[in-house]
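Q: Joint fold for the lines below.
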Amino acid sequence: MINKKETTLDCSVMSSTIQKRAARKTPAERAAEIADAAREIALEQGLSAITLRNVAARVGVASGLVAHYQPTVDALVAGVFAAIVAEETEEVSGLLDGLPTPSERLGMLLETLMDGSRLDVTAIWVEAWTLGRRNEALAACVREQMDAWQAVVQRVVEAGIEAGEFETSDAPSVAWQILGMVDGLNAQALVRWDGVSNRGSHLAHAVEGMVGAARDSLLPAGGD
Amino acid sequence: MINKKETTLDCSVMSSTIQKRAARKTPAERAAEIADAAREIALEQGLSAITLRNVAARVGVASGLVAHYQPTVDALVAGVFAAIVAEETEEVSGLLDGLPTPSERLGMLLETLMDGSRLDVTAIWVEAWTLGRRNEALAACVREQMDAWQAVVQRVVEAGIEAGEFETSDAPSVAWQILGMVDGLNAQALVRWDGVSNRGSHLAHAVEGMVGAARDSLLPAGGD
DNA sequence: CTTCTTATTGATCATGCGATCAACAAGAAA
DNA sequence: TTTCTTGTTGATCGCATGATCAATAAGAAG
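A: Joint structure:
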């Protein structure tokens, strides 16, 4: 049983294809690698596919090392969720900053969130709602990220009220409502794409009715 | 090791508390028992808590028996989902039948679905959306039940158009949209109850905007 | 070169899952 | 009563999970 010695020798000989031991890295580097791998897995296969062995395999490392860098798998899952969702929030929020009027910003918000290019993130949201039932750390992150989203929407709605473009007495609730609608419609699209035409414009009209905006004021120019 | 013989004797002696072997039942009876137990587990702990051992324990039966009555656990999960959701659809649909006008029916639909008394069913929906990714039988049931819901809503919307109470060119899409909104808002309530007031009336106004109904025509009499 | 810190390994444990099936026994039929 | 159908058992297999930790070796420090 000098098997161990042999494989060690093999390793030093065939350098490229089979790596027997992962290169030593800075804790910060390795932690980032692990977080990135977990992130990719979540977007491709869902949050529940984040396992010690799964992540370790993607990084090319022993499963124990993943555990070494994370207090718990639940914490890793929560962290991945927060990272994915926070990035989306900031990205979309940034898109709005350049637009002059609240109507345009709200219209862009709806258009962007409903264009179907973020369904992978929607899947993460939906799974997190369920997983949060058994992962307290994740549940906390979910609430936090929902609040962040709500704040973005509320800011737009309040600006619209101030500018006289919208007319509603309860911006916070309306913001929650808009978010809920968007989430629900996207979750639906996760399962059923067909049968619904003009998803974006239907929602725009619904939101117009809710914020008291003029008909078609939230639609992109020239669209229906 | 006459343990077996002993416990058998024990059984015949202490009749009430410890049942060593489950009473023999009709296949139909037993199958119903198992389905009911699985249903309860799903509503209390989620669809993913439906396991052979979990269900067997609740029925008071060996795990093998559950497997004996179901081709696969995935099928059991799909069946439980369909049963729970179909019951809700029929129940709510029945509620609408007694109402005279489409506006009242749509208003009642929104009010009923948003009153928070069906959050356990919402949790089932949300979990099914995610689980359907890895359970094809479940995914098929989800699509089927979504279609059933959509048909109920579409019928109301079309009746409203015919009666001149609503004004929209695309009843099917609007029906999908309403469902998506309701689901999203309920899923949101699963995680966050606070912060949102008048969920029902906000949604009612949004739907009014979407179906082209008069302001407040979907609100319950005297409410806001 | 040698020394020493520490990143990394991989076997291991306890637990849970779905599925399978020979063996058992309850209760109807003879 | 005895016979026989069949509902029921529970051990068992293979696989997957999270967590733990002594042992290893890479690579900086001396």
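Q: Anything notable?
A: Residues 21-22, 24-27, 30, 61-65, 68 of chain A lie near DNA strand C (CB under 10 Å from a C1'). Chain A touches chain B through 46 residues (CB under 8 Å).
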